[in-house]
Input
Amino acid sequence: MTSLVPRLPPHATPTIHQFLRAHALANGNEGVVVGLSGGIDSALLARIARDALGPEHVLGVLLPDARFPTELTRETEEYARSLGIEHRTLGLDPLARAFASLLPEVQDRVSLGNALARFRMIVLYTIARERRRLVAGTGNKSELLLGYFTKYGDGGVDLLPIGDLYKTEIRALAEELGVPVGVRERAPTAGFWEGQTDEGELGISYAEVDRILHGLEQLRSPDEIARVTGLALPRVLEVVARVERNRHKRRPPPIPKVGLRTIGLDWRD
Output
């Protein structure tokens, strides 16, 4: 694999199906709640969960705010209906307005976007508890490694069924499973502000970043990754630095060693 392009493993879908059944239908759980966004990740996860668990065990929840396009709401609801899964649409504007009135001095759009992501997760967990379901997150391997998610927002979930698939593999699997073209070709966005896109904010395409991340997964050096991919070494080093900088997002909160056995250190569940 000289180009370091990730290739979707043939066992990906059955492995994820088995994973979902083992977790979402065990220990009294009755399925999953999936936050729908209109994007490829949530659309793919809803399809995979439907296939693995059956439509009666999947609840899709769309949580738009004032900036969310009405047409995209209709399209996402229609997609959920086409899967045969139950779905709900709940506007987040009341929560956003309450937060703005509580902290009117907060104007930074990233801070406000992170708050909105956390509001969404509060709603999803409340619904999931009432329905005895787990919250299935839509994060993929690229986002997790880059730290491109909100801590205790979209990163705070029970399961990450597609968390070991790079974004380019997500696209390949979505095409394989027949996720609508309009969803597959829509520019990935967190929807934090008007015109925001993942690749625009990251400053690099997923096609490029996945090759770098795949090289890191194989324990290749930045120099070797740059040579094999043909990407500039400074660009590779930027991605490496971002992965290191956001390591804290992939770990549980650190605890000082005081007792005999400490959670996360030598008390492992």
